[in-house]
Amino acid sequence: IDTFFGRVESAGKEGSGTLILKYRDVYEGIDEKELDRILLDLPEPWRALEHVDKSLRTGGILLCYNPTVLQIYKLSRRLELKYERSFRVMGIYEIGMRGWEIKGRSMRPEHRMIAHTGFIFVARKCSAGEQEKINYRHRLTQINTDEKSNAVSPAQQEQKKKSV
Q1: Measured between alpha carbons, how far is residue 108 from residues 54, 61, 101, 103, 112 in Å?
Q2: What is the dihedral of CA 86, 80, 1, 34, to 10 degrees?
Q3: What integer pLDDT is reported at residue 129 of this predicted model?
Q4: What's the whole-model pTM score?
Q5: 24-46 burial string, b = 16+ CB within 10 Å, else e?
Q6: Is the CA virtual torsion 82, 26, 93, 96 positive or negative?
Q7: Terminus-to-terminus CA distance in the chain, angstroms?
Q8: Cα–Cα–Cα angle for 38, 43, 47, rounded to 5 degrees
Q9: How buried is 105 (Cβ within 10 angstroms: 0-12 exposed, 13-18 middle, 19+ buried)?
Q10: DSSP string, 76-120
Q11: What's the rounded Cα separation, in Å, for the pair 146 and 73?
């Protein structure tokens, strides 16, 4: 919990150390504003992005759990196409489940694995300035990549001179 939600104990600030978990239909909206974290375990999390964008504070984290990679793909595409100026994807992780056997003093993974996986998607809400820096760095990387792909080796330059 500390990894995702941060330290829950009071840090001396009024209102700090408060952890509120709510179970509700976020497709209909989120009443609270300036939230630090939002955790979604929904079949269609992309449908809640408009409400998440309005309710999550700058620097806040969105975490979504989904059982299929197609759901994660739809979520990341919607974020990229409609909310690219608001969010930066921090990571997509596959989670696997494997049973373990305990016999006496030994412990080892089960030989047969019928895997059940899930995916965790993590994004951070960015300020406009942060996103511009990210976009600028991306453009520079793209320019450098294009220049490298158009670069001509000394051997290729010699070959061109000979053919002229």
Answers
A1: 47, 36, 6, 9, 12
A2: 20
A3: 65
A4: 0.65
A5: eebeeebeeeebeebebebeebb
A6: negative
A7: 68
A8: 65
A9: exposed
A10: HHHHHHHSTTTEEEEEEEEEEE--EEEETTEEEE-SS---EEEEE
A11: 27
**Model pLDDT, residue 56:** 94
Beta bridge partners of 93: 120
Domains in the chain: ranges and CATH: 31-146 (3.40.50.150)
Locate 129 and state its tokens.
């300035």
pLDDT digits (tens), the chain, 164 positions: 455 555 555 444 555 567 777 778 899 999 999 999 999 999 999 999 999 999 999 999 999 999 999 999 999 999 999 888 889 999 999 988 888 899 999 999 888 877 778 999 999 999 876 655 555 555 555 555 555 555 555 666 677 677 66
Token pair listed for 54? 């309005």
Nearest-angstrom CA–CA distance, 124 and 27:
20
- Residue type at 54 in one-letter notation: K
d(Cα 96, Cα 12) in Å, to the nearest integer? 39
Q: For tokens 């995702």, name the residue.
A: 4
- Determine the residue type at 77: R
73, 121 contact by CB (below 8 A):
no
